[in-house]
Design brief:
The chain is mostly helical. It is built from 13 helices and no strands.
Length: 251
């Protein structure tokens, strides 16, 4: 049964499909326009949703602490932490696939809205992908990712790239993979978790401050709102994202 499930999962991953994740990838945006004033963000709806999600997070912490006292949970943790090589392989393969795709496109720095006409960038991306083949060369891939991130900051501004702290986090993970000191090497996953969480949290803050970026999408697909107003939906979506990221770091 496990083999069948794995085969089905792999087959689904291989099916051609287009995925859009960040609102800046497929809706108009203008980062020069200031966000909503704080008095327009802290509405009664915002406060009510904040109280609701505070209760949800508290309940999650209680359940998390109760589960962690169980023997099966401790055994699961030990099994996960012993699979460092597997985790490392998954991340290396994922990074290699990402940068092969970017190299093939030829016009993207790191994400779809970050465009470039530089002929050098695709070759940097291909080199990053190739560096994932060996543990000893991963640090060069890490340096390449940071170089692309800095290049994107220069082209689009630091504010825009605040959307993507995940890239420096991935670079740090790869750079520390070859560290000889176990305590230094152990920082890799916490740094990666933190980068992912910060990416999600900033996405949530943008939903609070720039909800109108998403309004055209909601107008085209009103079923996404489940009957909520656009403002209520964006507020709730922001707290979903922020709460998941907060629990990832602190749970």
């Amino acid at each position: 049964m496990r083999t069948l499930s794995a085969l089905v999962g792999v087959a689904l991953l291989l099916l051609p499909a287009q995925s859009q994740a960040h609102i800046k990838w497929f809706c108009a945006y203008d980062t020069t326009v200031p966000p909503l004033p704080i008095v327009e963000v802290l509405t009664p709806t915002f406060i009510a949703v904040a109280v609701l999600f505070s209760g949800v997070i508290f309940t999650a912490f209680v359940i998390d602490r109760a589960v962690n006292t169980k023997d099966w949970a401790r055994r699961l943790d030990e099994r996960i932490f012993r699979s460092e090589a597997t985790t490392n392989t998954i991340i290396r393969v994922s990074v290699a696939i990402l940068f092969v795709v970017l190299w093939d496109g030829g016009t993207t720095i790191l994400t779809p809205e970050l465009k470039t006409t530089s002929p050098l960038i695709p070759w940097v991306q291909l080199a990053i992908a190739a560096s994932m083949a060996s543990r000893t060369t991963m640090k060069f891939g890490a340096a390449g990712i940071m170089a692309l991130y800095i290049y994107a900051v220069q082209a689009y501004g630091a504010f825009h790239l605040m959307d993507y702290p995940i890239f420096p986090a991935v670079a740090l993970y790869l750079a520390l993979a070859g560290a000889e000191h176990p305590q230094v090497r152990a920082l890799r996953l916490p740094l990666l978790y933190t980068g992912i969480a910060l990416t999600m949290m900033w996405g949530a803050i943008e939903k609070f401050g720039y909800p109108y970026w998403t309004f055209p999408l909601l107008a085209a697909h009103p079923q996404l709102t489940f009957g909520l107003t656009f403002e209520q939906f964006m507020c709730t979506a922001g707290f979903v994202e922020f709460s998941l990221a907060f629990f990832m770091v602190t749970g």
